[in-house]
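Quick check before the chapter quiz. The format below is the same one you will see on the exam, so make sure you can read both the input and the output lines.
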Amino acid sequence: MQQIADDMGAQFSEYDDKKSVIVVPLKDGRFQTVMGVLKHHEKYDREIIQFTTKVCDTSQFIHFAHILSRSADFIHTKFVVLEGFLRVEAASYLDNISDGLLKEMIQEVAEIGDEWELEITGQDIH
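Here is the expected output.
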């Protein structure tokens, strides 16, 4: 993950052997924080890697039908609501992952999260 972050020009911080944070630089001097987590997916009994970023808290007005219809163009990501926040998330099984796919997932999570954060809040918060 450190090497992938370096290749992206991002800042990488590892919390422990299961969690890390990547601060991804975006256009117009903006940044988006992406959390990476290794975990066991109970339903499918497999190890996964999951990347998540916050968009906004759910107390904001969110036109869910609009964001869900626009998400049809996403490749790796999806919207989720968790712990009072609208988030963008991407996940993959560890046994199917490559460095290229990791980079694509991180970049898409960061770009989509930033795009929707700006659209909904008008700010660069996360």
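If your answer matched, good. The domain at 2-121 is CATH 3.30.1460.10 (Yope Regulator; Chain: A,).
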